[in-house]
Specification:
The strands form three sheets. The chain has a four-stranded parallel β-sheet with strand order 4-5-8-9, covered by helices on one side. It is 48% helix and 8% strand. Helix 1 packs across helix 18 and helix 1 packs across helix 19. By secondary structure, the protein is α/β, with parallel strands linked by helices.
Length: 469
C-alpha cells in the first residue's frame, strides 16, 4: 500500500517517477491564464492569514462548504477569518475524492511544510503555524511566485482597465512577467442593452471617441487593443456559453442593431446573435493582426441560482457545466476567420467532457502547416480541472492530435497558493506516459520522453506565446 501524498504521489511506475523527478519537476511555470489580482502583485502584499490567501474568492471551496451544510455567514459572510478557516477545516474530510482534498494538502505541504491532514481537530494548530509563517516577508505575493519558480503569468483584464498595476510591476523591474490578457466579454454582452450602453459610454470617455456607429465602436476597441499590446498583452480570452454563428448580417443590419443598442432598445434573439458574431470576428481579426493568441472558454452555464446571484453577484459558486452544442458553431467561427487566412493562434477549452473528442478533432481542421500546434485543445478547465478530467483530455488529444505540441497547464485561479495545480498536472502527465512505457506502448527512451515532458510543462508555451522571458 502506498503512503498518501508521498514523494511519488500519483506516480505508479518507475518510469513515471523518473520522468517527473528528473524532467517535469525542474521546469518553470508559465501560467498563461489566471485571475490573480495585478494590484496585489504590484503592491507586493502580504496576507494577514491563510483565510485571506486561501478562501477569499475561491468558489471551488465555497461550493464544497455549502454542500457540507456550512452557513453562508462562514463562507462569504460576516464571520471572522479564523472562524471561516475552521469551517473549511471541518469540510475538508468530506472532500475525499474531490480534487480539493489533493489541492488542499499539496498547498499545505509546498508552501508551509505541513504534512498533517487538515480537519476539525488539526485546524487550530495549522492555523497558528500558517499564521506565523504567512506574516513573514518571504510570503509576499512576489516572493510566493519566486518560490514556485514562476516565470510568467497572464491575468484577466477588461478592455477598460487602466493596466496601471501592470505598468507599476514592469517599471519596478520585477523579473517575473505579469502581463494582461484582453477579456472583452462585457463589450459584446448585448442581452442587456442598458448595461452594454453604459459600457460603451465608459469606453467613449476613455478613448475620447464619440461612439455613435458600429464603426466608431470598432475604432474605440481597436484603440484599447493597441494600448493593451503596448503594455505587453499577447493573449485574448473569451468566456462563451457557445459560439455565436449568424454571419448573414449586412453592414446596414449591423448599423441598425448598434443604433438600437445606443437607444437602449431591446434586441431580438437573432440580432443578439448577429451582433456577437460580428464582434467575435472583429476581435479575432485584431488578434491576428498583432500575432496574439485567442482563448475560447466554452460551455459554462452561469449564475443558475438567481436568488444567490442577486445576493452575492457573479463568480460566487453557482455555475455549472452546460449542455450547449458547440461543434457546428465553433467550426463556422473558425472557418469564417480562416476563409481569408486570418485565423489567429487559438486555444479552445470545453467544460462538458462529452466534447473532448469534438475539440480534439476540430483543431486538426485548422492547423496551417506552418505554426506547430497553432490550434490547441486546451487543458482540463474548471470542473474538468481534476485527475479524471485531465487524463481524458490528454487521452483525446493524444489519440487525435499531437500531445507533444500541447501548451500544457494553467491555474485559472484567484489564489497565489494554487501553483501546485501545475505539479498535479505534471504528475498525471508523467504517470500516463510511464504506464504506457511499462505496458510496451511507448519506447523506454528517456531522452525522447523527457524532452516531451519538458516541452509540455513549459517550453511549448514559451515558444507558442512568443513572450520574451
Amino acid at each position: 500500500m502506498k503512503t498518501f501524498m508521498d514523494n511519488n504521489f500519483l506516480l505508479q511506475t518507475e518510469t513515471a517517477e523518473t520522468l517527473y523527478h528528473e524532467h517535469a519537476a525542474k521546469m518553470p511555470i508559465f501560467d498563461y491564464h489566471c485571475h490573480l489580482s495585478p494590484q496585489q502583485i504590484a503592491d507586493d502584499i502580504r496576507f494577514e492569514n491563510i483565510t485571506q490567501a486561501w478562501l477569499y474568492g475561491d468558489h471551488y471551496k465555497w461550493r464544497a462548504m455549502r454542500t457540507n451544510g456550512i452557513d453562508e455567514k462562514y463562507i462569504t459572510g460576516t464571520a471572522n477569518d479564523r472562524e471561516k478557516f475552521e469551517k473549511w477545516a471541518q469540510t475538508v474530510p468530506y472532500t475525499l475524492r474531490n480534487p480539493l482534498y489533493h489541492w488542499t494538502h499539496l498547498e499545505l505541504r509546498r508552501y508551509f511544510g505541513i504534512e498533517k491532514l487538515l480537519n476539525e481537530k488539526s485546524a487550530e494548530t495549522i492555523y497558528e503555524k500558517t499564521q506565523d509563517m504567512i506574516s513573514r516577508p518571504e510570503f509576499s505575493t512576489r516572493k510566493i511566485m519566486r518560490k514556485m519558480n514562476v516565470k510568467a503569468v497572464c491575468t484577466t483584464d477588461d478592455p477598460l482597465d487602466s493596466l496601471e498595476h501592470h505598468k507599476k510591476i514592469k517599471n519596478e523591474g520585477f523579473e517575473i512577467k505579469v502581463l494582461p490578457a484582453w477579456r472583452p466579454d462585457k463589450a459584446m454582452a448585448a442581452e442587456n442593452v442598458k448595461a452594454l450602453n453604459a459600457y460603451i459610454n465608459k469606453l467613449a470617455q476613455i478613448t475620447d471617441i464619440d461612439i455613435s456607429t458600429i464603426g466608431d465602436y470598432d475604432n474605440a476597441l481597436r484603440k484599447r487593443h493597441d494600448y493593451f499590446h503596448e503594455n505587453g498583452c499577447r493573449l485574448s480570452d473569451h468566456g462563451l456559453a457557445a459560439m455565436a454563428m449568424d454571419y448573414s448580417a449586412s453592414k446596414k443590419d449591423l448599423d441598425a442593431i448598434f443604433s438600437k443598442i445606443r437607444k437602449e432598445q431591446e434586441l431580438t434573439t437573432k440580432e443578439i446573435i448577429q451582433f456577437k458574431s460580428m464582434m467575435m470576428l472583429g476581435f479575432a481579426l485584431m488578434d491576428w493582426q498583432k500575432g496574439w493568441v485567442q482563448q475560447l472558454h466554452l460551455g459554462a452555464m452561469r449564475n443558475n441560482n438567481s436568488r444567490m446571484f442577486h445576493t452575492l453577484g457573479p463568480d460566487t459558486g453557482f455555475d455549472s457545466v452546460g449542455d450547449y452544442m458547440i461543434a457546428e458553431p465553433l467550426a463556422r467561427f473558425l472557418d469564417a476567420c480562416d476563409r481569408t487566412n486570418r485565423l489567429p493562434k487559438t486555444i479552445i477549452y470545453n467544460l462538458n467532457p462529452r466534447d473532448n473528442e469534438v475539440l480534439a478533432t476540430m483543431i486538426g481542421n485548422f492547423q496551417d502547416g506552418n505554426t506547430p500546434g497553432k490550434i490547441q485543445f486546451g487543458s482540463g478547465w474548471w470542473f474538468l480541472d481534476q485527475k479524471n478530467g485531465m487524463e481524458k483530455q490528454i487521452e483525446a488529444l493524444s489519440n487525435m492530435g499531437l500531445l507533444s505540441r500541447f501548451v500544457g497547464m494553467l491555474t485559472d485561479s484567484r489564489s497565489f497558493l494554487s501553483y501546485p495545480r501545475h505539479e498535479y498536472f505534471r504528475r498525471i502527465l508523467c504517470n500516463i506516459l510511464g504506464n504506457d512505457v511499462e505496458n510496451g506502448l511507448l519506447p523506454h527512451d528517456m531522452s525522447l520522453l523527457g524532452q516531451m515532458v519538458e516541452d509540455i510543462c513549459f517550453n511549448n508555451a514559451k515558444n507558442y506565446f512568443a513572450i520574451e522571458l
